[in-house]
Amino acid sequence: MWEYSVSEEEKRILEQQLWKIADTLRGKMNADEFRVYILGFIFYKYLSEKFHLKANKELEDEEDKTDYADLDDDSEYVQAVKDMIFEKMGFMLKPSELFSSLTIRGNLKIEEESEGELGNEEAAANFILEDLTSILNNIEQSTMGTESEDDFGQLFEDLDLTSSKLGRTESAKNSIIATILAHLSKIDFDLANREGDVLGDAYEYLIAKFASGAGKKAGEFYTPQPVSRLLAKIVTMDKQNLQSVYDPTCGSGSLLLRIGTEAKVGEYFGQEMNRTTYNLARMNMILHDINYRNFDIKQEDTLERPQHGTKKFSAIVANPPFSAKWKPSDLLMSDDRFAQYGRLAPASKADFAFIQHMLYHLDDGGTMAVVMPHGVLFRGGAEGIIRKYIIADSNVLDAVIGLPANIFYGTSIPTCILVFKKCRASAEDILFIDASAEFEKSKNQNILRAKDIEKIISTLRKRETSDKYSYVANLEEIAENDYNLNIPRYVDTFEEEEEINLEAVTAELAQIDRDMVNVDAKIAAFCTELGIKAPF
To answer: Does domain 214-489 have CATH number 3.40.50.2000?
Structure first.
């Protein structure tokens, strides 16, 4: 379901070009691997065109009105441009390093055979592999020692241009890369005439396309858009401005960025353990025109090596890996994130460890919404103790929302959203919503529709009991249930079977018996006429 600002025609062109590029890589590597190359080169083209546009704007006042791409790298104008726009852009590209300049040097022409098919490429392409490697390194190096270093450092490290998967010879690798760049050159980003997020939305669309075909691995980097939208609406409810937002398992950053479509966000913070996905998140931020000063994405294990200190956030969202393994060492018992609970989440299930981590970082006036497997609602042991503390001692759990099964990539299990607030308006109760039956069934996945999302948000806002859908449970009732939050304990969705009229059934059976007697008599008569023995 596409909900961003890219038009249907733009989506069609993007998808057409995407699969043409993919055709050059199919058979050489799997989809997850060529995703890195395609999205990485799109990002390089974006950086190049944005820098080119800004540079030309600064050169407008010059007497000869030179195009930046036509300047020599050692021109005094190039240094002047760097002095004028580096602080805004956070990186530097020389004229020879622009995407357009490199594509011209590659000199590979694409002939379109027919729409949607891969065209024929001329066999020969000028050698640009070393140039491209140098350019990507130079983009990163240009930020060394500056404020933007953390946001651009090693950003292109996954684009391994020496990989044998691109070809066995340097010439073969060069041909593949030149082909990809030639196809990308046919896509007009038209940055001068677009709103800031349009290309970012297109990038998001491509990430979603890759996720839909990536199976189990997709869950590592992408939350389905309808779920992202629901989480974003929950944490921005009745809020137009948020000082800071945070996702401790941010994947590609899509969930964080979705909050920005619901409210004005000051700063974006995230942490991601997977290096490749971390790079994708930084690219996604920049492509959505988020200035490098306004986001801080870190790469590390969130539970073992948190990177944002004691900082508190206005809104927190997350879709952590379900029931992941972790290392609950004794040292963590003195960690401020976990100390007050008296117990750590079990090593085989880190779900509550993520919840404890996020609650520590939640601002007093903030809202937190996290996707969890249903097990966190009722499992005992250490998890039961932590759950009781959250409800009875901290009193920060505001709502439990049951979601449909099979709405996430890589798993078909039913899930729920837990909503937390430190300053709750309804401190004497918890709202339960069973939205598990509200969805649209599709071929591979169930989908939350816009009306399903709005029904959940409306119920959260009204906070009322609705037959077979929601229930407001007071804390005494939850205590009586030994802090078991299993949704069917509170929301009765049982459908009574239609009452059976036994007299009518008896009469029907009697009539069947009479009919059978008549049928047997007719069969016996036929058998007598034929001179054969009746079968009964």
So the answer is: no
